[in-house]
Design the sequence.
């Protein structure tokens, strides 16, 4: 074997070169990297939350409008109280629906209109938004109305109080035709042995 032959001693460290080596002790651990990422995420969330709060302060959400809306319709008829030759009195319920956004206090007033008479109830019912209340009433129905030949529409009178404590009186139409009220009154007004419609 000719020429210069170099012997490399494996026990000695190689000579320093232009390439810089990274010490194993200076290499960031996986745990430390995870901590850095979590810390950066927490700072981002905090900064974002402050920005969202400031945006809400600058542009406050609009308040929901306060709307009072009431709808009433005949409910169940629990039976006949009295029966005459041309009329019948029912023990019934009036269903009151609060379709607005504010609670309402409701009382049924006496109502005597052609075709229907409703005896009011002194009880005051609180009806919350989007809820229904059943109010007990006495209803005097002429047989002509029960048999479908009376005047339409029929009405009920209500005293309504909102959150401002103001009381207003409302007169609302009732969908009497096809209701439990009409069915009970029709059966009572139909002579025995005569089939109803």
Sequence:
């Amino acid at each position: 074997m000719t020429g210069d032959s170099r012997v490399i001693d494996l026990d000695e460290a190689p000579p320093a070169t232009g390439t810089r080596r990274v010490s194993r002790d200076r290499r960031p651990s996986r745990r430390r990297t995870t901590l850095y990422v979590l810390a950066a995420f927490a700072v981002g969330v905090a900064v974002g939350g402050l920005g969202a709060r400031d945006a809400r302060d600058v542009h406050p959400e609009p308040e929901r409008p306060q709307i009072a809306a009431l709808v009433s319709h005949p409910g169940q008829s629990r039976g006949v109280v009295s029966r005459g030759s041309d009329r019948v009195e029912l023990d019934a319920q009036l269903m009151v629906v609060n379709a607005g956004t504010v609670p309402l206090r409701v009382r049924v007033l006496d109502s005597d209109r052609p075709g229907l008479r409703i005896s009011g109830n002194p009880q005051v019912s609180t009806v919350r938004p989007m809820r229904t209340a059943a109010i007990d009433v006495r209803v005097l129905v002429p047989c002509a109305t029960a048999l479908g030949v009376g005047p339409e529409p029929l009405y009920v009178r209500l005293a309504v109080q909102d959150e401002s404590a103001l009381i207003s009186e409302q007169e609302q139409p009732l969908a009497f035709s096809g209701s439990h009220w009409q069915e009970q009154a029709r059966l009572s007004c139909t002579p025995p042995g005569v089939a109803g419609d």
